[in-house]
Amino acid sequence: MTSAANFRELRLDGMQRAFGNLNALKGIDLRISRGEFIALLGPSGCGKSTALNCLAGLLPLTGGSIWLDDRRIDTLRPEERGFGMVFQNYALFPHMTVRRNVAFGLMMKGVPKAEAAKRVEEALATVRLQAQAEKLPGQLSGGQQQRVAIARAIVIEPPLVLMDEPLSNLDAKLRLEMRAEIRRIHEGLGSTTIYVTHDQEEALSLADRIVVMREGEIRQVGTPQELYAQPAHLDVADFMGYRN
Ligand code: ADP
Ligand code: MG
């Protein structure tokens, strides 16, 4: 599967989101290159999901802008951005088979049937679920269901894959397996992925670069090696397990 997306850079320019008096995002500046795997890391309530939902277009910004190269996208509707989303609660259609769950987005986009069928098979192969294609979600394990959710996100060949704590409902063993799986899928597709987590191990093992967030702001950005070697803020050191 090849991505149709040929952008070079995603840019967040002073991205803000307020809920009443609460500034959930206080002006996020960030540049992400195509092909990167970025982890947004931080404790509960720091604004990770808000940032992801703003990127997807599910929440309007209250300040700043989002750009794909020289195209401003924060004014576009979610379907016009066409990003792939994977959430913590996979929200599959319970009455549809795995294959139909994965095909759904392509049908909505009006992709011709033969082309859609081919892409669905490719996506199912990517997440290794060909053998489960005719089952209903309720007949699958939690890990398999989350793989259906991933297949559904990638089958539309999105410029950007957004994942919000996709493994947090799985048990520890499955989490480890799926971690490797997610990295493998990212590399196989050459996609650009933004992955939200509060789990530093997950961020360290998955990401090319980690964006550490606190209270609606970015505290530090770096590769796992950089963050581990030179935590710029005490906060970060604390979070990475330095102080005790
Ligand atoms: P995280 O995903 O990092 O746990 P969130 O982005 O969900 O954090 O939330 C950031 C802050 O914004 C929190 O204080 C949260 O209570 C608040 N918040 C998030 N969504 C809403 C909303 N729809 N209405 C009001 N406050 C919200
Ligand atoms: Mg969240």
TrEMBL record:
- Keyword set for this entry? ATP-binding, Nucleotide-binding, Transport
Kinase in keyword set: no
Q: What residue stretches are annotated with the ABC transporter domain?
A: 10-240
Q: Does this UniProt record's set of keywords contain Metal-binding? A: no
**What is a GO molecular function of this protein?**
ATP binding
Source organism superkingdom? Bacteria
Question: What's this protein's name?
Answer: ABC transporter ATP-binding protein
Lineage here is: Bacteria, Pseudomonadati, Pseudomonadota, Alphaproteobacteria, Acetobacterales
